[in-house]
Amino acid sequence: MKLIGPFKQIVTLANLPLKGKINEDQLEIIQNGGIIVDDNTIVAVNNFDVLLQENPTIEIEHIETEQILLPGFVDSHTHICFGGNRAKDFAMRLDGKTYLEIAQSGGGIWSTVTQTRNKTVDELKDITLKHTTQLTKQGITTAEVKSGYALSVDGEIKMLEAINMANQETEIDLIPTFLGAHMKPKDFDGSNKEYLEILVNQVFPKLKSDELTNRVDIFVEQSAFLVEEGDYFLNEAQKQGFQITIHADQFTPGGSYLATKYNALSADHLEFSGEKEIEILAKSDVVATVLPGASIGLGMQYAPARKLLDAGCCVSIASDWNPGSAPMGNLLTQASILATFEKLSMAEVLAAITFRAAKALNLNDRGTIEKGKKADFISFSTFDYSNIIYHQGQLQPTQVWKNGLLINQ
């Protein structure tokens, strides 16, 4: 065992509700705090001097400077395994070109698909690791990573193999998700339903036999897969025991209905969720994951995070880091900007990128600093926790611990 500290403040995020709004005065803040870790688990959190008095011979990992401690961040929606670059797309979008015009010029998602297909599994692993290094520096200790940029049986499996290989070589946790149902590939001659049937009949068994992932995602949208097509796909996924998440309500409503029907872990995007969609999400256990990076990248409205919270939803915030619509990849900056536009409390923002985001990944062993939880935490060089959101991502973590070990400083 070892005692780490003292910290100016420890913001534990313990004993907060999973759903609904959170006021600032609900936060538990331990002044001059310390944390005892045994192996990869938190054993105790309290005032540093009290812990030292109770454990006078304990090994101490001394914090020399003024630091604020938070749980490690969880980014529950990313696409960081991909080939190529789409800066040209972004320039064309700024110049007023439509999505169709960009696609017709050789850009769009198909550009990423082509470049991803041309990468080897080792190249994709290395790209994922490069992006993971950036996540670690930002204080993210757990991140979901989707496939979905190969859109072929062999290519999607290659992507998931690369993500799993990267997970073995990085110090943080990468959670793979199968998103072969991102869109029907241009080079597939059949219907949407026929493409989904191939995924169900050929890829699903491989996901199970090779233990590539137990999570399945689908983009439910008029430009991708219609609600009835998503209904078929998700019914098959549920029957085969997969955990479900959905790209929902990004441009038109409908996906959130499927999320509640199939008790998905999360419904992600929700920019076009209206009162009816918010109501059904609030009555369910589906996490409403909002993705401000996509709104910033596309220049469109934000998901109605304030209304979702006020209705009683569990709201998480994720980066959606991808080469097309959300290239920023900075979770803390995006969450801080969203807070400004949606009037979120600092407590709600911090909850949305820690334990509520962990819930979207079906992980209940992290996201708070309390006894029995995984020893994933991060520190910031400042005198008060409110400066972290106030600086809108400019203030980055000074130190990152994963499973109780200091991995970045």
UniProtKB/TrEMBL annotation:
Q: Which UniProt keywords apply?
A: Histidine metabolism, Hydrolase, Iron, Metal-binding, Zinc
Question: Sorted alphabetically, which Pfam families does this protein's record hold?
Answer: Amidohydro_1 (PF01979)
Task: Give the enzyme's EC designation.
Answer: 3.5.2.7
Which GO cellular component terms are attached? cytoplasm
Pathway(s): Amino-acid degradation
Residues forming the Amidohydrolase-related domain are 68-404
GO BP annotations of the record are: L-histidine catabolic process to glutamate and formamide
- Gene Ontology molecular function: imidazolonepropionase activity; metal ion binding
Output this protein's name. Answer: Imidazolonepropionase
- Natural source organism: Algoriella xinjiangensis
Q: What is this organism's lineage?
A: Bacteria, Pseudomonadati, Bacteroidota, Flavobacteriia, Flavobacteriales
